What does this fold into?
Amino acid sequence: MHSSGQSPEVDAFNPSGGPVPVTSLALQSDGKVLVGGWRDGDVGQGSLVRLNADGTVDNGFNATVGGYGTPLTVYSFCVQPDGKIVIAGSFTSVDGQSHTNLARLNPDGTLDMSFYPASAGNPASEEDEWVTSLALQGDGKIVLAGGFRRLNGQPCGGLGRLNADGTRDTGFNLGDNPGYNGEALAIQADGKIVVGGSVRLHPDGTRDNSFNPPEQYYAGAVVVQPDGKILLAGGASVLRLNPDGTLDPSFNGPKVEGRTTGAYVRVSSLALQADGKIVMGGYFYYVAGQSRTMIARLNPDGTLDNGFNPGPTDNTVFELAVQPDGKILAGGWFGILGGQRRSAIGRFNRTDTPTESLALSNDGSTITWLRGGTSPEVSRASFDFSADGDDWVSAGAGLPVAGGWRVSGLGVPARVRVRARGFIVGGGAYSSSWFVETISTPARVAVQVGGDTLDLSWSMSGSNLDLFSTSSLTPPVNWQPVDSPRGTNGSVIHVSVPCTSGAAFFQLRPSP
It folds into this structure.
């Protein structure tokens, strides 16, 4: 039986010259896309490329990885808040320097030499090892999983944590390490670490014995919802756990089937939208008895979303990522995606509108970030504020509220920019980490200048205010102080500003 419904269209995003198959995806806040996978001969930059938002290859990203054999693979990314990128996989060199399976790149793709060469194994004797998953914590530390036995030269059973400089975190206490092997990772808002759906660790690495998931369940994909519930996928099922690890009976996970009875089936990846809907990818032909090849979407309660019905895809979808504009990226080992020819990577147009708002309360005590529609859901959030848009001060981590995230109890000055960042760990067997961000627009005045001098007047209450100007708001950079009187409570600021350009933008800020 085939259900009727909307068919999300594959858009014009059609890269060439990248890895085949694609095993990892990560998004940058500027809209660029990191793509990792197996090296397909000497095509393009092999197992690692960065794409512009339109799908063209970013030729300014100069990263090359080398290795000892086939397949040479980049399995995972970790995009840090400073724009640097940790890469993980199965390789022995980066930009001609010896780095085994783990390295950090500068934003332009060059090797970051300040990052300790945290090799997962010795390339001379342990070439069969690999790192498959990376997850960024709120404190900047990086959890990694894979098929490795040593980390920074010390014994490690497939799971470890690095400090922000790449050295091994010796305080990460795994105790009797049962041995992990390429497990999916997820980080909760409280800092706890979900490993493969079967184990949860406290932030110090000790096992959380209050977490009691179903026994013997292998999770190839793990996603943490803002309410603390945990989505798991693997084999032919998708299920949801309560925060304590018990099964959530309100989630009606669908039956996933192959082309024929008993055929191979696997759900490889999950991606969560802010409206609670769940995009799933893998190798399957039917979901809840309806025809869906390799990609489908579920409602928040786990039932099949009949309004999301892509065309045929001819092979496995390994990775999914929801963009801030609501479009859905898919990577895998396919030549046809949604009925269109696409080699290992493609993108679906959004099926609904993403929504969000970011606001600082009038008294400066609360920042609220509301998200909805087809926006990507995040598992934790952080907030910052800035007077100039360049130097940011942390306002702390956000707590989930209905429809979004909030931080309270602040004393943020009025009329400043505020920034929200939401962090995502990709819900695939090869977990990657990235973030999305929103920056508010401060109070400002834009004035067309007709002569050499502009007279400006404001009547505003509040603390003392200073005047700044810039010639461009795309982006808003290079704000310069304007020599002008400072305002006082309830005062009127009046100043004559020499202007040599055709337009200027002005901003009032609280005085230090």
The chain has a mean pLDDT of 83. The CA atoms of residues 458 and 465 lie 10 Å apart.
